[in-house]
Amino acid sequence: MPYAYDDQNIFAKILRGEIPNDTVTETEHTLAFRDIEPQAPVHVLVIPKGPYVCHDHFAAEASEAEIVDFMRVTARICASEGVSPSEGGQGFRVIGNAGEDAVQEVPHYHLHILGGRPLGRMLQKG
Ligand code: AMP
């Protein structure tokens, strides 16, 4: 089934400037801003500016320029937020939720960058 993008989702509204955001960085293809309900000292959301619902949609339909930019912006933020192990940081986790089982709340593709404290194991049992 093809992905149907809902342009009334909250990140689409952020991209149109209809609601504010705490921007970390912005490029031609990508916007990164702080999560409104941070779950760690570092909690940044990275979103493509294009209308993609989730990871596989983005991977299948975005241009190479969009994908490269998105990945590089994500990595640069890990460094600038001081959590990248390659820059002396203590580490980070990148999470991309898709669909119901993953409890994706906002249907515009985004990665969460989390860090700044020990994050525990990836998943709880059950
Ligand atoms: P997900 O469950 O992966 O779709 O995560 C959506 C995330 O968006 C949650 O962590 C929310 O706290 C965050 N969020 C929702 N509205 C906003 C907003 N206006 N600005 C920043 N983050 C938001």
Structure characterization notes:
With 126 residues, the protein is an alpha+beta fold. It has a domain at 10-22 and 41-115: HIT-like (HIT family, subunit A), CATH 3.30.428.10. Helix content is 24%, strand content 20%. The protein has helices at residues 10-15, 55-61, 64-80, and strands at 23-26, 30-34, 42-48, 92-95, 111-115. Strands 1-2-3-5-4 form a five-stranded antiparallel β-sheet, with helices on one face. A hairpin with a 3-residue loop joins strand 1 and strand 2 (30-34). The longest helix is centred in the middle third of the chain and has 17 residues, at 64-80. The protein is globular and about 40 Å long. Adenosine monophosphate binds next to loops.
Fourth-level CATH superfamily of the domain at 10-22 and 41-115: HIT-like
Number of strands: 5
CATH topology tier name of the domain at 10-22 and 41-115: HIT family, subunit A
Structural class: alpha+beta
How much helix is in the residues? Answer: 10-25%
What's the CATH class label of the domain at 10-22 and 41-115? Alpha Beta
What overall geometry do the principal axes of the alpha carbons give? Answer: globular
Which sheet architecture does the biggest sheet show? 5 strands, antiparallel
CATH architecture of the domain at 10-22 and 41-115: 2-Layer Sandwich
Number of helices: 3
